[in-house]
Amino acid sequence: MADVAVPNGNATGSDWPNRYFHVDQILDTAGPRTDDSFSAGEGVKKFLRTECKILVIGAGGLGCEILANLALTGFKDIHVIDMDTIDISNLNRQFLFRPKDVGHPKATVAAEFIMKRVPGCKVTPYFGKIQDKDESYYMQFNIIICGLDSIEARRWINATLVNMVDENNGESLKPLIDGGTEGFKGQARVILPRITSCYECSLDMLNKPTAFPICTIANTPRLPEHCIEWASVLEWPKVQGDKKLDTDDPDHITWLYTVAAARAKEFKIEGVTWSLTQGVVKNIIPAIASTNAIIAGMSSCCTEAFKIATTSAAYLNNYFMLIGTDGVYSYTFEHEKRKDCPVCGGESLNVEIPADWTVERLIEMLVERQDIQIKKPSLASDKPIYFQGPPQLEQATRPNLEKKVSEVLNSSSTINVTSTSLPFSLNLSVTFV
Prior knowledge:
The protein is of the alpha/beta class. It is 35% helix and 16% strand. The protein has helices spanning 21-27, 42-51, 61-73, 106-117, 135-139, 151-164, 214-219, 224-240, 250-266, 274-282, 289-296, 301-310, 359-368, 391-397, 405-409, and strands at residues 53-57, 77-82, 122-127, 143-146, 176-182, 185-191, 319-323, 329-333, 349-353, 378-380, 384-386, 414-418, 426-432. An eight-stranded mixed beta sheet has the order 3-2-1-4-5-6-7-8, with helices on both faces. The longest helix is centred in the middle third of the chain and has 17 residues, at 224-240.
């Protein structure tokens, strides 16, 4: 989809008197924690307010807070990407939206609101997926902030920014600030591609996605979630064939809800709702406005963006976490790089497996590993080992599932792993034990 044209509103208006009085106290004078490269005065203020271009990915609960804080801090050239439209359930925490906005693109409405409310600020929205844009698009920004609720999207932008880095071009390194919340817990981190640990390095810190045994959801469902999983995992491919399930399509969610509700009625299970159906298939986590405000605001994401843009203070190195479930506790630490990180490590992932393992057992191991988090992997060496699709190729390689890995590798010990959930190819170096 094309960039959405938005009226400037007050974007060309002048700043109100003393608008930057408090911010200028930081930028006019060096402080005890100021970076050595900091140059106080008009130069740094000009860069912040007229030259620095910043991208916000996500205009939901976290993104709304980030956009407002950036505009009020003095960033004037802001871009925002979001692929969602506004739902009535968003209004309790995504404060840039009103009932009249339901059904409209989040990015467009958020941009209009910020430009109307903050004179002199230009916000350029894009209604679509981050994957729609190529590297040349991301190269134009000085800083990128993520306010996403999708692990797959985070992995994609992380891998894209790491791959963009050119040792001979310092401007190719784009700092990534990632924020996330889950109920009363939250985190923010600063990622300098190729320098600090990247998002992929910390996958093992994430909660393992909930998985239900196929035998349970197929034969003895006990929970509403079992009925929803049955509808999405078993019935959708059975009825819809090769049609891909789009969890962002309301019509697809409605179909799943209808089928799951019928199965729940058959087994006398209560609790299947449209919102629960959406939550299960999209793995939606609860959001609380106050947590969003803390993580997005002047204690986390936007503070780090300001420090990186102005060098007025040392930026986070490199992980901040907040736990508010029992009191309020915060902690910062340096998350170290993984040498075998498939994105920034530069090395193949070494795996040791028994010599009698089959290809099917290897695939099960890959799916179970917390530090990989892969769905439906396809394997190849010097020739296809097992491909999840298309159907003809899956059928042709299916007999290999029962073969030993040592039989299909021939002289090579490296396996190339791909998946729709991976934004990169994973190279496995296999050792038999």
